[in-house]
Write a structure and sequence with these properties.
Number of strands: 0
Structural class: mainly alpha
Shape: elongated
Order of helices and strands: HHHHH
InterPro entries: P1/P2_N_sf, Ribosomal_P1/P2
GO biological process, one term: translational elongation
Mean pLDDT: 79
CATH topology of the largest domain: Arc Repressor Mutant, subunit A
GO molecular function, one term: structural constituent of ribosome
Radius of gyration: 25 Å
Number of domains: 2
Keywords: Ribonucleoprotein, Ribosomal protein
Largest sheet: none
Function: Plays an important role in the elongation step of protein synthesis.
């Protein structure tokens, strides 16, 4: 991660922690106050648009939730396809 991305991320976290709306102007103000000079304004705009209308604290608290569902679905799919293969073999034996 570059210095620009880190600086903008930390600025967004500071604003979220204070309960302040995250905007490009507020991100830029915090970055300049921290004397970080090599951050292009596009980073503030990108982060502000990406986080618009989102609760950053909620995003952080739910980082790992919901990860088990795809694995369970994949395991169920394997079991179902295995069962179908066994049924097809049983039908072939009955016919032959």
């Amino acid at each position: 991660m570059s210095t620009a991305e880190l600086a903008t991320s930390y600025a967004a976290l500071i604003l979220a922690d204070d309960g302040v709306e995250i905007t490009a102007d507020k991100l830029t103000t915090l970055i300049k106050a921290a004397n970080i000079v090599d951050v292009e304004p596009i980073w503030a705009s990108l982060f502000a648009k990406a986080l618009e209308g989102k609760d950053v604290k909620d995003l952080l608290l739910n980082v790992g939730s919901g990860g088990g569902a795809p694995a369970a679905a994949a395991a169920g799919g394997v079991a179902a396809s295995g069962g179908a293969a066994e049924e097809a073999k049983a039908e072939e034996k009955e016919e032959g």
